[in-house]
Amino acid sequence: MLKLLLGLALLEVSSGTRLGKIFGGNTTSISEHSFLVNIRRSGEFRCGGVLISPSCVLTAAHCLERRHHQVQDLTIHAQQQCLGEHSPQEHVRHAWYARVSPYYCPEQGLDSDVAVIRLSRPFDISGNASLIKIDYNDLPERANLTVMGWGKIDSHGHNRNQCLQAAQVQLIPQKRCNEHVGSPMQWVTQNMFCALGEKAKDACQGDSGGPVINDDGRTVGIVSWGYGCGSGYPGVYTRLGSPSITYWLKRFVERHCW
Questions:
Q1: What is the C-alpha separation between 83 and 161, in angstroms, rounded?
Q2: CATH class of 34-132+244-255
Q3: Of 106, 2, 16, nearest to 63 (Cα)?
């Protein structure tokens, strides 16, 4: 079943698809990845994201649920190991506004699934929070990557108090990925890439918006969609090195994310 990898609720895209959890991963420390944040709407966990500047969070466009002009009920929580933990006020920010890529096309397989949330006030990165850099370069053919998030750890459970997970995944050639998960309604475009780990390690519901990180510690992608969790199908991620995504994202960050 195709589902977007949103938090507690599943956003159906088309028959068989899921939206971007970490399936088969291991618990990892938020203190080692202090650029990670979780995004909540009216207090309910929705998605992951990363700090790319003290005042901006990178996430997936589908995490905004087509409400990117109404983000006042979004809060961004930093330094939270498990979702059920209390967040001190110094670790919480409200969203000010958000922008999705002008190329985002939810009707055609979540193409260009990327958004940036501008915070009401910046995080103090001299304290516990940190920033992650974006790698806009082309991915090597055999890239080893790490995906992180607070998503479900099995396809039947829930993630109300899920703790941060990470899993190692490997890049899959585009042609082979389309043979596995492509369809006329859900094609894997050049604005996406596919990855899957050993023993079907994968992203799952709740991991949407979280980062895919290369060996240099830079983010190269965003958890977007896939089929099932740990089902053997590759996960599909937003490709930040895509020319159109790179062009829009660099311009937005330069103008809004100081």
A1: 5
A2: mainly beta
A3: 106
